[in-house]
Specification:
With about 450 residues, this protein is mainly alpha-helical. The chain folds into two domains: about 170 residues, Serine Threonine Protein Phosphatase 5, Tetratricopeptide repeat (Alpha Horseshoe), CATH 1.25.40; about 280 residues, P-loop containing nucleotide triphosphate hydrolases (Rossmann fold, 3-Layer(aba) Sandwich), CATH 3.40.50. The protein is about 55% helix and about 5% strand. The strands form two sheets. It has a three-stranded parallel beta sheet, with helices on one face. A three-stranded parallel beta sheet has the order 2-5-6. Helix 10 runs parallel beside helix 19. It starts with a helix and ends in a 6-residue tail after the last helix.
C-alpha cells in the first residue's frame, strides 16, 4: 500500500503505512526502503528503525532497488560499513546496476573518498549510455568538494539541462506570478484588521504543541545551523520539510488560498483560521513528528516565507526565524540540487533567481503590512558566532538555555538535501561559496542585485 501511494504522489499517506511496517516488525512482502521519508527523527526510534528493517533486507536481498534504499538508510545512520556490505552483496548479484553504483558513489562521498566516487560515476558512462541528471548533479557536488569548480558547474548545468529535457518540466512562471500577486493583494493591513477574533488553540491528544520556531529559508544548502542547534534542546522536536500549508489551506475548500481566506468574513467560515490551524496540528501529530514531552517543533519547509502571512495568522504567537544567506550562495545551492519547490524554479539558474526575488519582495510586503514576531538572522553570522546567534533566537522564543547543544552528537535524520551536514560541527566552507562560481553566476547578478543590496550583502 505504501508503494502504491508513493507512486500516486501521496507520500504523506504512504508514510503512515511504512511506519506501520516498523511497528509490526516488517514482513517479507514489504518495501519500506522505497520511501525515503521512513526514518523517525529522534535518537531512540532512529536507532530502532534501520535495525528493525534488517530482517526485511536480508529476506529481500535479491532486489537492487530495495538494497540501494537500505544502503541509504545505513549511510544516513552513519553506519558506513553496513551500507558498504549491502552494496557489496548487490554488486555480486547485479553487476553494474546503475542505482547501486550511484548509491555507492554517495557513500564514498560521505566517507570523503571523493576521487573514488567521481571515478565510479564516470565509469558508469559509455558510448551507449550517458550519465543521467542525478548522476551528473552528484558528480558536480563531488567535484566541488575537491576544488574543481569549473568542472563542477559544467556537471550541474548538464544535469539541469538533461532534467528539463527528460521531464519536460520548466519553471511555471505564470502560476508563480499569480500566486505571489494574489497573496500580496490579500495580505494588506486593511483586510487583516477585519479578520475575526481567534480562539484558543486545539489541544493535541499527544501533547499541547505548537510551532515554536518556524524557520523561513529559501534553498539554503550548506550546514543547517538552526536545525542542528535546536535539535539538542530537550523539549523541542523537529519537523523536516512537509508542505501542509497548502493542504490545510485547501481542506474542504477548492478555491485558491486568497479566495478561501476572503470567505473568513462570512458567518459560517468565521472559525476558518482555527480549523486550518487544528488541521495542520492534526497532520503533524498523525505523521509522527512529535515525541513525548515536546512542546514545540520547528517547521523547516523550504520557501516557508511564501506563506509567511498565513503562518502568522494561524500561529500569531509563534516566533518566525528567517535564515538569510547571500543570494548568490543560494543560487549555487539551488543549481547543484534537484529541487522541485517553488514551481520548479530551480530547473534553471535564471528562473531560480527570478523566483527568489519574487519571494523576498513578498516578505518585504508581509513585514510592512503585518505585525510579526520576526527575526532575520544571517547564516554567515550563525556560523561565525553560534552562541550569540542562538541566544538571539532563544530570546525571540522566550526560552533560556544553560548551555549550547553538542551538534556532532545529533543523530536525527533530516529529510533534506543537507541531511549529512546536519550531523557535522558548524563549518565555514559554504560561506561565500559563490565566489568559486562568480563567472558562471554573472547572468543572474543583475536580477539579484536589488535584494543583495537590501540585505546588506555585496558582490565581491
Amino acid at each position: 500500500m505504501g508503494m502504491i501511494l508513493t507512486e500516486a504522489n501521496r507520500p504523506q499517506v504512504a508514510e503512515y503505512h511504512y511506519r506501520r511496517v516498523l511497528e509490526l516488525g516488517g514482513s517479507a512482502r514489504s518495501h519500506p526502503a522505497r520511501q525515503p521519508r521512513l526514518e523517525p527523527e529522534e535518537p531512540g526510534p532512529h536507532e530502532r528503525g534501520p535495525r528493525a528493517l534488517r530482517g526485511i533486507r536480508q529476506r529481500r536481498a535479491g532486489n537492487p532497488s530495495d538494497a540501494a534504499g537500505f544502503a541509504r538508510l545505513e549511510e544516513a545512520d552513519r553506519d558506513f560499513d553496513a551500507a558498504a556490505g549491502v552494496l557489496d552483496r548487490m554488486d555480486k548479484l547485479f553487476p553494474n546496476d546503475q542505482g547501486v553504483r550511484l548509491t555507492r558513489a554517495v557513500l564514498l562521498g560521505r566517507m570523503r573518498k571523493y576521487d573514488q566516487a567521481i571515478e565510479l560515476i564516470d565509469s558508469t558512462a559509455s558510448d551507449e549510455r550517458k550519465l543521467g541528471p542525478n548522476e551528473l548533479l552528484e558528480k558536480g557536488r563531488l567535484l566541488d568538494q575537491v576544488g574543481r569548480y569549473d568542472d563542477a558547474w559544467a556537471a550541474f548545468a548538464e544535469g539541469k539541462k538533461l532534467a528539463r529535457e527528460l521531464s519536460g518540466q520548466a519553471y511555471l512562471d505564470t502560476e508563480a506570478n499569480q500566486q505571489i500577486e494574489r497573496l500580496r493583494n490579500f495580505f494588506t493591513g486593511g483586510r487583516l484588521r477585519l479578520m475575526p477574533p481567534r480562539k484558543r488553540a486545539f489541544r493535541c491528544a499527544a501533547a499541547d504543541v505548537h510551532p515554536g520556531l518556524p524557520a523561513l529559508r529559501h534553498h539554503a544548502g550548506g550546514a543547517d545551523p538552526v536545525g542542528a542547534s535546536e535539535d539538542r534542546r530537550r523539549r523541542r522536536t523537529a519537523a523536516d520539510p512537509r508542505d501542509h500549508r497548502d493542504h490545510a489551506a485547501h481542506a474542504g475548500q477548492p478555491a485558491r488560498l486568497s479566495e478561501a481566506l476572503a470567505e473568513l468574513w462570512m458567518g459560517d467560515q468565521r472559525e476558518g483560521l482555527d480549523n486550518l490551524r487544528d488541521y495542520y496540528l492534526h497532520k503533524v501529530r498523525q505523521l509522527g513528528v512529535l515525541r513525548d514531552g515536546a512542546t514545540r517543533f520547528t517547521d523547516k519547509m523550504p520557501l516557508n516565507e511564501t506563506h509567511l502571512g498565513l503562518i502568522a495568522l494561524l500561529f500569531p504567537e509563534a516566533p518566525l526565524i528567517h535564515v538569510l544567506r547571500h543570494p548568490l550562495d543560494i543560487m549555487v545551492s539551488a543549481f547543484s540540487n534537484q529541487f522541485t519547490h517553488g514551481f520548479f524554479c530551480a530547473y534553471d539558474l535564471e528562473t531560480a533567481a527570478r523566483h527568489y526575488v519574487r519571494v523576498m519582495d513578498l516578505v518585504q510586503h508581509y513585514r510592512g503590512e503585518m505585525t510579526l514576531r520576526y527575526l532575520p538572522i544571517r547564516y554567515e553570522d550563525i556560523v561565525g558566532d553560534q552562541e550569540a546567534s542562538v541566544r538571539a533566537m532563544l530570546g525571540l522564543s522566550a526560552r533560556t538555555s544553560t548551555g549550547l547543544p553538542d551538534v556532532p552528537q545529533n543523530r536525527r535524520y533530516a529529510r533534506t538535501a543537507s541531511y549529512a551536514q546536519v550531523t557535522e560541527p558548524l563549518y565555514k566552507r559554504s560561506v561565500h561559496r559563490y565566489q568559486h562560481y562568480r563567472q558562471h553566476l554573472e547572468p543572474v547578478i543583475q536580477i539579484l542585485q536589488p535584494v543583495i543590496e537590501r540585505l546588506g550583502y555585496t558582490v565581491d
